[in-house]
Amino acid sequence: MDLKNKLKILTGDILGGLNAAIITLPQALAFGVATGFGASAGLWGAVILSFVAGILGTKVPMISGVTGPVAIVIASIMHALNKDLSSVIFIILIAGIFQILLSLTKLTEIVKYVPYPVISGFMNGVGIIIIIMQINPLVGLPVSANTISSIENLIKSAGAFNIDSIIIGLLTLLIVFFFPKRFNKYFPAQIFALIICTIISVKFGLNVSRISEISVNLPKFICPRTNLHDLITYLHYGVTLAIILSSESLLTGLVCTSITKKQLSAKRILASQGIGNIFCALTGTMPGSAATMRTVAALKTGASTKFAVLVSAVILVLLVSQFADFVAEIPLAVLAAILIKIGYDILDTKFIKVLKIAPKDDLYVLILVFILTVFYNLIVAVGAGIVLAALLYAKRVADKAKIIDKPVYDADIMKLEIAVEKDYKHKIRVVHIDGAFFFGSATQLISHFDELLGTRYLILVYDSSDMLDISAIFALEDIILRLKSQHIKILLVLNSEKLLQQLRDYKVVAQIGEKHVFSSEISAIEFAKASFKKRVKKKYFNK
Q1: pLDDT for 304-317, tens place per residue?
Q2: At what angle do helices 378-400 and 360-375 cross, to 10 degrees?
Q3: Domain at 411-541, CATH from 3.30.200.20, 3.40.50.720, 3.90.1150.10, 3.30.750.24
Q4: In angstroms, rounded to a whole number, what is the distance separating the alpha carbons of residues 385 and 387?
Q5: Is this model's pTM higher than 0.90 or not?
Q6: Which pLDDT score, from 0 to 100, does residue 83 have?
Q7: How far, in Å, CA of 527 to CA of 519, rounded?
Q8: How many H-runs (helices) and E-runs (strands) does the chain carry?
Q9: Rounded-to-integer distance, Cα 207 and Cα 509, Å
Q10: Domain residue limits, the chain
Q11: Which of 71, 403, 418, 431 is most buried, taking the most CB atoms under 10 A from its CB?
């Protein structure tokens, strides 16, 4: 590798690490305060976990720290144990160990089989929880432990709202929601709001609750108490936390794969995150997971190696050590407003936009997961959603089971496919999507399409006439985008007018063009042959 490329990689890592650190700072402080751990624990947890998991993890840089779902679970555990910090730290230790044990099994692959409506319902639920729970500190009231108590406290204390908190909180909301996108890439709205609103609150002497204290000293080593009684008592909390930590990290890994086109080891992700969270427990800091928003920000800014993770951690330490006095003056209402924006960003707007035309079964699953997440328990919500989705799928299959006369596969078409691929040296290929096509099979299908080097025209034949559920539609969109990124022309063959109309409604057909959709495979092959010949003539004879 020449010096120019090395400098380009180094510059990308530094800029990516800087961007990730700037995004992490307000979130780590806010989640630390919101969970009851404290701002220092949130910040140092992000530094320690990101550093340890980043160094031990995959080659693709993944920025770690506390996230929305993790914060909600931690806050719930803190409330259930009456803020017994030593017990919570022991639970974090259990969670880290359990993550390492999970990495030694094949359960790391299970995230691929969670239906999209379950994930959507869960993420929407977490987003709403964060928004509801941060309304209290936004108006100057103490943070409540859950959504129900937050709503009750808000109603009971309606006459005790702090006007100064409301003013500075609303100003923060205006900035984070309406900050120009063209500037947000270079200077995130969250950090801009944090700085400006804190300065305003100090200059005008606003009477608001503040962070007040933040430790710049390195966290001290803590030896969590360990005994059989506590292990039995708190095991279910540890397992719950480990599942959330692992799910978040694995989903972030899938996003990284989509961006970088590099397959990441799920086992390595979990093992590194588990070790990182053990270090968090041993230092009394906040646990976390690979954070999607921060990781994507780093990758989009140019980060490509583990050095970006080191840069991010070092910058966080420098920021807090140099500006500790300023951090202590940050109003809790400002942090609450930033978390409300984070909660809003977590909401799955992609699925919300198609609610009116989404299949009813998907809606049932989403609504169940959403309600249980907001008002009961996150893990129960996901488990119930998976069970309901499986039952509804089984019902759909059972309803369609019937004895029919089906002709054998057309031998002539098979010969034609072989001849086309041979004559055109695989420039034209035919791929049949056969069997169950759903969210769980998307990864395997996409990885198969990554091997189509040299292909110029891909004829995608969907042999079934079954309508697609929302998971399959989004998976098909991912496949189309992946093929387009490889400059491959896609021709789609469907044998159902209803299915074609469904794909039109979801704008899938618009992505590939109406003229590239056919009702017969032979028509698609003839179109591909003619287009390829025209392309060759244009390239070599019109020079």
Answers
A1: 899 999 999 998 88
A2: 160
A3: 3.30.750.24
A4: 5
A5: no
A6: 84
A7: 12
A8: 24, 6
A9: 56
A10: 3-347+358-389, 411-541
A11: 71
